[in-house]
Structures are given as C-alpha cells and as structure tokens.
Amino acid sequence: MAELTTNRPNWLAELTGAPKPIVGMVHLPALPGTPLYDAAGGVSAVRDWIRRDLVALQEGGIHAVMFCNENDRPYRLDADVASVAAMSAVVASVTDELSVPFGVDVLWDPRATLAVAAATGAAFAREIFAGAFAGDFGLWVRSAGDAFRYRREIGAEDVRLLFNINAEFAAQLAPRPVAEVARSIVFSSSPDALCVSGPITGQPVDASGLADVAAAVAETGVPVLINTGFRASQAADLLRHADGAVVGSSLKVDGVTWNPVDPGRVRDLMAAVEAVA
Length: 277
Fold this sequence. Notes:
Elements: H1 11-16, E1 22-27, H2 42-59, E2 64-68, H3 81-94, E3 102-105, H4 110-120, E4 124-127, E5 131-135, E6 138-142, H5 144-153, E7 160-164, E8 170-172, H6 178-189, E9 193-196, H7 207-216, E10 224-226, H8 235-238, E11 244-247, H9 263-276
Parallel strand pairs: 1-2, 1-11, 2-3, 3-4, 4-7, 7-9, 9-10, 10-11
Antiparallel strand pairs: 5-6, 5-8
Helix pairs in contact: 2-3, 3-4, 6-7
C-alpha cells in the first residue's frame, strides 16, 4: 500500500474553507415516477424530509452537502423525467436555507445529473461519467466526452464533475487496478475530483486501493475523495490518503441508509475529522 499524507490545496478545499472537506449526503425519499414513491405524502413530504436532514447536517458542522435520489429503487441507468423535474423543484426550494456549498447526483444518469445541477445552481455533480461496467442494472457504458459536451450545451461549465471511478453494484468489463484507472481518467477525461467507492452504498473503501489512487494522481492536483462507508473511527486512517470524503449512511440513525440523519453522528464525525485535519 502506498503511503501518502494529503493536505493539498484544491478547489474543493477552497470552496468549503476546510482542509479536508466532508460532503454530507441528503438522500431524497423516492420521487414521483418510481415504485417506492409516497403518493399520499407527495412532493411536500420529500421537501420536509430533506429540510430536516439539512438542519442536522449543517448544525453538525458539515462542510458541504450533496442531494441524491438515493431511494429511487429499483435503480435505472436513465432517470425518469418526472423524477428529474421533482428533484430540481425540491432542491431549488431549499437552496435559500443552505449555509454550505451543494452538489447533486441523479442515479445513475450523467445527463440528468448535469441538468439538475444547471437548474438548481449546484457547485458540483457526482456520477459515473466514464467507464464500462456490468452489474445489478445491466450493462453500463459512460463516456466523459458525452458528459462534457452536454455540460457545455446547457451552459453548466461552472459545475465541477466528481467522477466515481469504481462503480457501486457493478464491476468493470475490462478490469484494471483502480490506481491505473485513476491515472488514465485524469489523463483522458479532465475530472475535477476522483471518488473511490466500496462495493455498494455504505460499504467501506479499500484502504490500500485508496492510498494507491492518491499516490497515482498526487502530482496532478486532482482531489481524491472517499465515496462510501466513511465513519468517525476511520478518519485518522483514511484521511491520510484522501483529500476529503462523501458520507451518507454512517450519519443516519443506526447507520441505516434509509433513516433520517442523526445529529449526534454528524457531530461525532466532524469532531474526528477536525482532529485529523
């Protein structure tokens, strides 16, 4: 495992004012057009849910947030128009309540993600923007060239792109070491950040792989983020190799992805990060 201590200045640290930025996930309940949508509660119930989670995250000291349609299960590779419209409306309705920068992710659709980012004024967007995978949702092929051209087409060039370089719920069709993938994507696809994931949502990243990715791109200035399974107990170990983290499930009540954000877990994580940073 490569050894690397990161505390490098980068755009995300500048955006958030934090040396090791932590992006807290705001997981939306199921949206219109998806099987788990609560039609009785409607979009107002979705809005109430995210407002509550936003309060917990911001009061706990989170550095940034990212909105995601996490409960639009079973997942598709092309987001439904109704979900995209609802997510845009709900996110736009709470932006005045934000005291931190925000991003968006529409699972698992780069174009939809960019469209929502442009509509809501998001600073960054996360998705699988490049690669070929096979997994729970079938064949999964993404081209960064398509994403960048669409971003330009809709006038969203200011939206920073966070690349998931190893897909959750799937494996590469032509497997390569994750550090080699990272180096290749930085060279060919101009990512603004690299996100390193565990096998599924909420599962920890491999520390050795994370360290190898950080070492592989250390001279490029592209930040490397822990993307899944980050916990307070891991802060000292993993933040030696990463420039920050995206965190969702571990901040929820009982650590369950579908539960509300637990304010105590947010405070505990941010205290651990502060001690490291």
